[in-house]
Design goal:
Strand order of the largest sheet: 8-7-6-5-4-3-11-9
Largest sheet: 8 strands, parallel
Structural class: alpha/beta
Number of strands: 17
Strand content: 15-25%
Shape: globular
Length: about 425
């Protein structure tokens, strides 16, 4: 069989051209769309009225890499606490922009608590939850008016669990007039996309700068999300926020989010992502940030932290030494990144291999910046270390983990220092 006339292509399709929206706080600017890298964001699950507890979680999310953090603003107490949260973050040196998530009473809270409206860097508006009947247009307009007054961008976030019923009824009536009516699922898709775009256009008619609008159409099913966002991307040029409404808990949530977002990102669709994981009891909220980063990094769209390559193990690796070492190194690298990213430019592109036996160990280690091949079952109790493709040393004894971690740190300091980067 003859080979192809062209080299085998790799990588995602070209990013869809979008408007450029900026979310800012002080000197910190986070760009969404306009060719900017796909941004990772998250949301707190604390009671916003607890200003200290909320600020601490925001700090943890920002330290993990969340570039924007959304908080619930659902009551007068929560709205009153927002300026205190911002002040506490400032005292802790955390400049991450805050997004206020509003439903039902957002128009009242934004008008009654101007300090809250100013402290937030962006508003999330769900057009299905701003009011019913005649009140809907008025209350939506009030929220847009506040956003214009304080020069804040907005995300118009449509959700299939709270879709504007009047709009849905209109779409259903239009469908009934077709010679061949669409199935109910297609009608729902059309209602979601239409709601997002019509409300964005309405916001512009009310005076909002079109470059301050971000859209989302949240659903919970993987295929539903892919279908809706493909259509939304084709019909408008607003920046798009990707994410399942309820991804789920544990591996289910991670797999569902990865499956849905990876397809869209590969097609060049999406400008910011949020992984809506349900935390396990006592679980760490920052996990959703890490998953979002890892989706983008494994797809080659961004680099956040050095990647650790480790084999899955087999009958040759009955010892758990390589598993323990891989876990320790990966944890160590992620914990160091908040400091390293400002001191050692480029370190996020480093690859580290921790392999379990002689089959693929030396080969994989040679492809990494730093690699170690630990002894498998029955192999000589020695662990060769490879640096930039060359074997440099062999570690032995019961301090291999500590010695290898020191080698990794020495490599970072010698290869990614500011002096070297300059």
């Amino acid at each position: 069989m003859s080979s192809s006339s062209f080299p085998i292509a790799s990588g995602p399709l070209a990013r869809r051209q979008r408007r450029r929206a900026v979310i800012s706080y002080g000197d910190r600017q986070v760009v969404v769309g306009g060719g900017a890298p796909v941004m990772v964001q998250s949301m707190t699950n604390t009671d916003t009225a607890d200003a200290i507890g909320t600020a601490i979680q925001i700090k943890d999310l920002a330290r993990a890499g969340s570039e924007v953090v959304r908080i619930t603003v659902n009551s007068p107490e929560a709205a009153a606490a927002v300026p205190a949260i911002r002040e506490q973050l400032d005292r802790m040196g955390v400049d991450v922009p805050l997004v206020g998530d509003f439903h039902y009473n957002g128009h009242t809270l934004l008008n009654d608590y101007p300090d809250c409206a100013q402290a937030l860097s962006k508003y999330r508006i769900n057009p299905g939850n701003v009011g019913k009947g005649a009140k809907r247009d008025t209350q939506f307009a009030q929220m847009i008016e506040v956003a214009c007054r304080y020069d804040k961008p907005v995300r118009i976030g449509v959700n299939w669990g709270s879709l504007d019923q009047a709009l849905l009824a209109r779409i259903m009536d239009e469908n009934a007039q077709r010679k061949e009516p669409w199935p109910a699922q297609a009608v729902m898709y059309e209602a979601l996309v239409t709601s997002a775009i019509e409300n964005a256009q309405r916001a512009e008619e009310l005076g909002m700068d079109g470059n301050k609008i971000i859209l989302s159409c949240k659903v919970s099913g993987v295929q539903d999300l892919i279908a809706v966002y493909r259509e939304l991307a084709n019909r408008c040029d607003y920046p798009l926020h990707l994410g399942l409404t309820e991804a789920g808990m544990g591996s289910k949530g991670i797999v569902a989010s990865t499956a849905a977002l990876s397809v869209l990102l590969q097609e060049g669709i999406g400008d910011t992502i949020r992984i809506s994981l349900t935390p396990e009891p006592g679980g760490d909220r920052t996990r959703e940030v890490i998953v979002g980063q890892e989706i983008l990094q494994t797809m080659g769209l961004r680099k956040f932290t050095p990647m650790v390559i480790a084999c899955p193990g087999c009958g040759r690796t009955t010892s758990t030494v390589f598993q323990d070492l891989a876990d320790k190194i990966q944890t160590y690298l992620r914990e160091q990144m908040p400091v390293w990213k400002g001191v050692y430019p480029g370190v996020e592109s480093m690859n580290v291999a921790v392999m379990g036996c002689i089959v693929n160990g030396p080969g994989e280690s040679k492809h990494a910046n730093i690699g170690i091949s630990l002894p498998g079952t029955g192999e000589s109790p020695a662990a060769p270390v490879f640096i930039d493709g060359e074997k440099r040393m062999t570690l032995r004894g019961d301090r291999i983990a500590e010695e290898f971690q020191s080698i990794v740190l020495e490599y970072v300091q010698s290869h990614y220092s500011k002096q070297t980067a300059a």
